[in-house]
Amino acid sequence: MERRLLMGNEAIALGAVRAGVACVTGYPGTPSTEILETVARQKDGRIYVEWSVNEKSALEVAAGAACAGARAMVTMKQVGLNVAADPLMSLNYVGVRGALVVVVADDPGPISSQTEQDTRHFGLFAKLAVFDPSTPEEAYLMVADAFACSEAQGRPVLLRPTTRVCHSYASVTLLDKLPRRAPAGFHKDGGRWVIFPRLSYQNHLKIESELRALRGTFSAYPHNLLTGRGRLGLAAGGVSYLYVREALADIETDCKLLKVSTVPFPEALGLSFLEGLDEVLVAEELDPVIEDALLHLCGRHGLRAAIRGKGTGDMPNAGENTVAGVRLAVRRFLGLPTPEDDGAEAAGEAPTPPVRPPVLCAGCPHRGAFFAVKEAVGRRKAVYSGDIGCYTLGNAPPLDMVDTCLCMGAGLTMAQGLGRVEPDTLHFAFIGDSTFFHTGLPGLVNAVYNGADVILCILDNGTTAMTGHQPHPGIGRTASGAAAPKVDIHALVSALGVSALTRVDAFDLAAAKRAVTEMLDTRGVRVLLFEGPCIAVDRGGTPCAVDGDVCTGCGRCLRQLGCPALAWAPEGRRAARIDPVLCTGCRLCAALCPVSAIGGGGRPC
Known about the structure:
Largest sheet: 7 strands, mixed
Distance between the termini: 52 Å
Oligomer: single chain
């Protein structure tokens, strides 16, 4: 057996390979992205891997493979589950012949997401089993358990790692691969796979019966643990269990400790934990799922244990748990002195770092697109609807070009609704190339069909930048690196019959401004396709430089562009300076300078 230092996402991927996965699909989204990428790097000809255009498509492809008897896995982040919810809800009623594990990475904090939704609650809502690992090592093992559970039930199963499990590293023992079984193939089964109301009713009864059985089965699951003794209890799940263990490491006290790694809740184990207890403190991220389950057991069985946690204010209701925060809560619960009692700082707690808001990279083509629109619109009344991706950062000063941002694909459709209420206003929508394929197309079709008056700016930087530069249909490469047909965004949009369509170089400020201006006084669905490579794809030309003898210190380049490569020179004389390490030579600042003090740079043709 081999031991390797693995990121949690790598451990999940290798756990799936070990379990004999045959089909892996997904859509990139932090903190889940590296799972599919790791599987793709295995170059195992027996495993089909794809980046799908969105999470709904990814789940449906994986569901097809699972219905044909294969072990399939689909990866996404928690907001991606919202996109995949429609097929997943129905698939639980229809079932699968092989196995389907849906890996949904939750993002407490949130660190890189719109929401802090808890996938365990989705599991309860959808009546799906959920596995909740607390470490990368546990995640590696749980993948095989999840496949086995899905296969035994004939239904999809959720695996819910959180950010700290996904992105932390651990030494993982890689076990021998499990025996691989060839998929049995698809059997029509007299309409089993066609979801009708009568079939749904019958399967709902089966699902409820299976969930009751799972509560007992999970009480004997080895990753659900009960240790210790005493009249006080601590319950935890996920990475919070490790924080509780660390808090107890230097404490000599008697208390029970319950670790919960599954949904549905292991009721028999929970009752054993509650027996003889006066009080319980629950530590978990994000929602009080374990807490509510313990409260339910106390109410059903007439137990008098007081359950404390999020509902009582003993644990935070939002954000990540931390080692220091859990240690403080545990010591308070156990009646032990805390650093607050003597005014001391928490031991080993790092000082709070300064807040640094995210900004567009130096040389980002989106800066040129935003600035061209802003300059062309001038003082006219306009609303700018944004979307999810690097271009969300267009909201930051000095650009201030994102007025709304809801979810992927919503910028264009929200702009349509805003336009129906304020028809005298210019309504712009910004969307990236990958997001356009993800959920932008239906919104554009809707705009054309319903005669909307909106200007769509598609910001094509040739990659899925914010999540790590994964390929998409417009690039001509698949997840495994193989060549693929390249879907031409310009041709696709043209085929939809929009009122006007113009292709623009995002780095040619004068031409981009003219293109925007030409569309301001027309009506209908107008599309501007801003093209320019992400700096991670193409670093551009040589860095620009400021001629200090010419620069007047007007500060226009600094005030209006917000490029991190621009700063005031450290010398006594007031003049701009360009950091040659950050600058990519995009020349947006040169185009803006009123005295032509900026030279050099220049992106290659």
